[in-house]
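FIELD: query
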Amino acid sequence: MAPATKAEKKAALDAGAWMFNVVTSVGIIIVNKALMAKYEFSFATTLTGLHFTATTIMTLVLRWLGYIQPSHLPWPDLLRFVLFANVSIVGMNVSLMWNSVGFYQIAKLSMIPVSCLLEIVLDKVRYSRDTKLSIGLVLVGVAVCTVTDISVNAKGFITALIAVWGTSLQQYSVHHLQKKFSLNSFNLLGHTAPVQAGSLLVLGPFVDYWLTGQRIDAFDYTLPAVIFITLSCSIAIGTNLSQFICIGRFTAVSFQVLGHMKTILVLILGFIFFGKEGLNSHVVVGMIIAVAGMIWYGNASSKPGGKERRSPSLPKQQKNGADSTELDAKV
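FIELD: result
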């Protein structure tokens, strides 16, 4: 058998990265749903802080074992990233509380055009006509699947707007910082996870009390609940790492577009495990449209001129041992 070409190896690694992200993302959704529905652990912001605490421990162990080499991320860039990330987390939680589910889904879908705008303005990226149309087709398909009632109020709209921009800027920054400072996913997580963990563990209980009216210290920590919290934190390590790997290998826009496959998969698994009451013709049609759009996007964006940068790439500030994707490829 002939040895695999560089393009074939890259395609295999790209597919592996996406599969890693899909499996961990769907897994954590299922675990968190059980944790919040069955055990009534409604402290989402604090739970995210625990997720980043677990991720921090993982990066410290890997650094101790020598798998993560010393690297540098300037404090202004680090604090800016953490600000975007925390605004995203808190904003999404508040948006879900103040908006209807339908408008919340519309807000999530709007991250794709916002991410496109950031790449066009900041990175001088140009999209072909087919790439733009394929993105539109994905948006239509996912909207048909997920959007039901839509009601809007002023504070909900403003919160959703802040959350969308915070999330888009955070995901853009993942790709930008990895390229600018030659950081792989482990390096970047090693810098950002401790700061995010500390800030969310301090702010989380207050935010959760504001959102739910319940105090985290008054929660009944039964053994099953603690097991689910631990399981959620364990899966979150893979979710956080796979997000950084995927955005680093691709871009925030590609991560958003192809990431909606997780939405389709969650819907399908819901129909399989929880009955077919939500399965109807317009949902099936929406799934087909969304998947067709994803396939079209993958084909269109990979063609010459499908998605290209009009300015030189960011200069690399320093080399942290191996290439920024070399360690990611080994995951």
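FIELD: remark
Confidence is low (pLDDT under 50) at residues 318-327.
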